[in-house]
Amino acid sequence: MEGLKVWRLSSSIARPSNLRQLFGLGTSSGLVRCLDNGAAAANATNTRLPSRNRRASTSTSTSTNTSDREAVRAIRLKKVEQLRSKGTEPYGYKWDRSHRAKELQEIYKDLNNGEELDSESHHVSIAGRIVARRAFGKLAFLTLRDDSGTIQLYCEKERLLNDQFEQLKTLVDIGDILGASGSIKRTEKGELSVKVDSFSILTKSLLPLPDKFHGLTDIDKRYRQRYVDMIANPEVADIFRKRAKIMKEIRKTVESRGFVEVETPVLQGAAGGAEARPFVTYHNSLGRDLYLRIATELHLKRMLVGGFEKVYEIGRIFRNEGISTRHNPEFTTIEMYEAYSDYQSMMDMAEEIVTECALEVNGNLTIEYQGTEIQLQRPWRRETMHNLVKEVTGVDFTELEDDLKVAKDVVLKAVGLGLDSKDKSSIEACPSLGHLLNEVFEIFVEPKLLQPTFVLDYPIEISPLAKPHRRHAGLTERFELFICGRELANAFSELTDPLDQRARLEEQVRQHNKKRAEAVSVTDGTGEQKNIDEDSMYEVTLDDDFLTALEYGMPPASGMGLGIDRLVMLLTDSASIRDVIAFPVLKISQ
């Protein structure tokens, strides 16, 4: 933008006497606050306020910001009235665009500085949000942004009809959505511009956009008002465009292998397919409790019973558990099931999905995640849980006897030095050797698995839906995929024996109910009761209909669930799951 200077909205210029000048009401120059582009922003460094003004207390800052915002809103509401009094509707119905900003930048990339194309064939029409502006004398520059990029509007008074130039100076604000038409010009300073001969306010913005220099930096507010976040930080919208590409590529990859996309119920009579606390709701007409699904697994397996051989579902999953940088109460997975295959097939599928998505989004298989270089070239490492635990801790679980107490003593002797009390308690609380092996793996091995690694052959105690290993007693044919110390996928050779499946699920219910009974309450020194583990308080019931389906016969099959949110985090270098979910669940705003 030509010779642009930056004016920032702050508490020091929020007085009503200054607001009229700030927003171009009745000023001789029409100079208004702007969100600048690159070169001009570099020249504006010296306009920042002293640091002490930027460190006001939170309560004062919040109060001032609210006051500023309401004052701006009041001024803009008056502008809405002014527009309507002039017969102009500030909330339009339609605008016929000929191009988007990026298209114009590409078409006219070879246009020379100072050159203008004024013929009918170079007459264009665009629309978007005004993110920067400067008006003075008989000339105004505006930066218009659509979902493809930005382009400058070059506005001359003599070129605009009637009083449009005055309207532009006094009634158009940062944040307004405009439609504009005109010819193409590249300014002497090299800025491609639409030389405007007419424009229309399509949507009048009532609230001010965040300051360009400070932006929308409040993390909680960025998540809570994602729409403002995307306006203030265009790179945020790029993450969701990449997410859409990833979803599209996943579908393309699995469907190229003959998988059919199906849909299964979100509201379920029994929350099965995983061990997680469900959300419970009540259906008034049916007079019964229903659960938001915690997995799509059991209904997809019903599809295999019904005769489908390759099915998948990309679906929203709901778990009433903790929130962290890796966990959101609702998240997206793809689950897929293939008849007549085993878990080896799903390893190949996982590699193909991740690598194809990486190539689509980043163009290569060497990526960086939070400062760590990740090599996605195939094939990926495949190693058993037993061997990985032995490699990291020195404990060989294959040599341990069946005595659980002795096994715990061996583990604590090997790794107990420096172990925090929480991890030590978790190890001591393990009810079986299988649980102990998994606990040691999660504490010591999992964080070290930075490069893509398939962890194979999990204990049967923690894998109630997986087929017993065909060579190793006490283990199952199951793998989990880890990248950057995070689980990305979980897969089995699926259990198809209905009697074995019933026995395992019943044992899972027994173990949960035992844990639930222990967690209901403990008596402290005062005789009062207090909960010690809320996450164990939910009820678990058998999905009898699923067990009935298995008794009709399900073919040998493999299945896999892959976390799409975590995959997007990996491929967009996003630190938190909330960065890749457009509208994450948050605490109630105070």
Could you walk me through the main structural features you see in this protein, from its secondary elements to its overall organization?
Helix content is 35%, strand content 21%. The strands form five sheets. An eight-stranded mixed β-sheet has the order 7-11-12-21-18-17-16-15, with helices on both faces. The protein has helices at residues 16-22, 38-43, 51-54, 58-85, 101-107, 164-171, 219-224, 226-232, 234-255, 297-305, 343-362, 385-393, 404-415, 421-428, 433-445, 498-520, 544-552, 564-572; strands at 116-117, 124-136, 139-146, 149-156, 177-186, 192-203, 260-261, 267-268, 280-283, 288-292, 310-318, 330-339, 366-369, 372-375, 381-384, 453-456, 478-483, 486-493, 522-523, 529-530, 557-563. It is built from 18 helices and 21 strands. α10 packs parallel to α17 (544-552) and α14 (421-428) packs antiparallel against α15. The relative contact order is 0.09. It has 590 residues and is an alpha+beta fold.
Core attributes:
single chain, 590 residues, alpha+beta, 8-stranded mixed beta sheet, 5-stranded mixed beta barrel, elongated, disordered N terminus, aminoacyl-trna synthetase, nucleotide-binding, Lysine--tRNA ligase
Radius of gyration: 30 Å
Shape: elongated
Number of continuous helical runs: 18
Main pleated sheet: 8 strands, mixed
Family: Belongs to the class-II aminoacyl-tRNA synthetase family.
InterPro entries: Aa-tRNA-synt_II (IPR004364), aa-tRNA-synth_II (IPR006195), aa-tRNA-synth_II/BPL/LPL (IPR045864), Lys-tRNA-ligase_II (IPR002313), Lys-tRNA-ligase_II_N (IPR044136), Lys-tRNA-synth_II_C (IPR018149), NA-bd_OB-fold (IPR012340), NA-bd_OB_tRNA (IPR004365)
Catalytic activity: tRNA(Lys) + L-lysine + ATP = L-lysyl-tRNA(Lys) + AMP + diphosphate
GO biological process, one term: lysyl-tRNA aminoacylation
